[in-house]
Design the sequence.
């Protein structure tokens, strides 16, 4: 009986051992291969032992619209952006 239940038990406990995921909404220029995002992602993941998921959006308007549409159901843990005031 135990041999039959063990695989099921292991399957149920798998999410406990999974790395936490931190979702960051940001600009595409930050997350691009040539931007600072990939290097920061690598260093952050090594430091916090988690997965950093960068969600790249075109610009500030797209970022804001996505947050407004998702509301309280947003998957973002962090929103990274900047505003230039002239």
Sequence:
């Amino acid at each position: 009986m135990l041999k039959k239940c063990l695989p099921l038990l292991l399957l149920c406990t798998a999410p406990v051992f999974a790395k936490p995921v931190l979702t960051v909404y940001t600009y595409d220029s930050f997350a691009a291969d040539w931007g600072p995002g990939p290097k920061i992602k690598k260093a952050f993941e090594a430091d916090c032992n988690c997965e950093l998921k960068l969600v790249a959006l075109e610009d500030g308007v797209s970022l804001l619209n996505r947050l407004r549409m998702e509301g309280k159901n947003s998957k973002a843990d962090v929103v990274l952006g900047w505003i230039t005031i002239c």
Notes: The two ends are 71 Å apart (CA to CA).
